[in-house]
Amino acid sequence: MKTVIVTGLSGAGKTQAMNCLEDLGYYCVDNMPPALIKSFVQLAANESTPIEKAAFAVDVRGGELFADMEKALEDLSASGIDYKILYLEASDRVLIRRFNETRRQHPLSKGESTLEGIKRETEILKNLRARADYVVDTSNMKVARLLEEVKDLITSGEGEKTFVINVMSFGYKNGIPLGADMVFDMRFIPNPYYIKSLRQLTGNNKKVRDYVMKHDVTKRFIEETPKLILELIPFYMREGKYNLNLCFGCTGGHHRSVAMANEMAEILRSKGKRITVEHRDL
């Protein structure tokens, strides 16, 4: 039986991930006591019509029952049950905003601030995060993109660690994206905005792209930067991080940053990397 354990920080998107797995044909159980996972898997395998795929959402909502998580995972491994752990997280700032929007209380806040609950939960889950097969940062993800990510990881990424590079363009006038790992300032490139024929176009247009890429400084940047990124990926993975948020900014987020984000995405994709692209301010 294919078994997926969905866990992570409260507010990071576990409900949406479970909905996606259910759409993929998984038998889904939310807030499952860890000690019962092994018994459920064994029972389901012995039915006349066995369940082929199951997913369990396990997190701190389980209270004292969640303390059995480490032992439950050891029992699964000892029984020869193959499972994958999908861990979802997001930045403190984004999680606080999500709790404020839904007007719900963090399960570990205990009458204190949401931030204190998040810190307490992060500490409790640190060992489980280290064991995760997939770690997904949902800070900059819309629901549709999260669902696509979960689908790709579970259906095509099983059996190996899957590293995803999220490429985003943005405008500095609207602020740096939350959750950015690397920020590249494209304002060193001459601005197409001051070319009358290019002003109303975007970096998705070939004319703007050609203008941005023709400069020697741009050519040097796209020659050296992918090397740096590719060399760093193994070190991120060693630290348990399996996605990288690359953000390219210019003044308005319409021309240089868009053209460079597209170019960098294509270069990294040609190196066999899994890529997502988002133009935040278009």
Automatic annotation (TrEMBL):
<feature type="domain" description="RapZ-like N-terminal">
    <location>
        <begin position="1"/>
        <end position="154"/>
    </location>
</feature>
<keyword id="KW-0067">ATP-binding</keyword>
<feature type="domain" description="RapZ C-terminal">
    <location>
        <begin position="164"/>
        <end position="282"/>
    </location>
</feature>
<dbReference type="InterPro" id="IPR053931">
    <property type="entry name" value="RapZ_C"/>
</dbReference>
<keyword id="KW-0547">Nucleotide-binding</keyword>
<protein>
    <submittedName>
        <fullName>RNase adapter RapZ</fullName>
    </submittedName>
</protein>
<dbReference type="Pfam" id="PF22740">
    <property type="entry name" value="PapZ_C"/>
</dbReference>
<dbReference type="InterPro" id="IPR005337">
    <property type="entry name" value="RapZ-like"/>
</dbReference>
<feature type="binding site">
    <location>
        <begin position="8"/>
        <end position="15"/>
    </location>
    <ligand>
        <name>ATP</name>
    </ligand>
</feature>
<dbReference type="InterPro" id="IPR053930">
    <property type="entry name" value="RapZ-like_N"/>
</dbReference>
<dbReference type="GO" id="GO:0005524">
    <property type="term" value="F:ATP binding"/>
</dbReference>
<dbReference type="InterPro" id="IPR027417">
    <property type="entry name" value="P-loop_NTPase"/>
</dbReference>
<dbReference type="GO" id="GO:0005525">
    <property type="term" value="F:GTP binding"/>
</dbReference>
<dbReference type="Pfam" id="PF03668">
    <property type="entry name" value="RapZ-like_N"/>
</dbReference>
<feature type="binding site">
    <location>
        <begin position="59"/>
        <end position="62"/>
    </location>
    <ligand>
        <name>GTP</name>
    </ligand>
</feature>
<keyword id="KW-0342">GTP-binding</keyword>
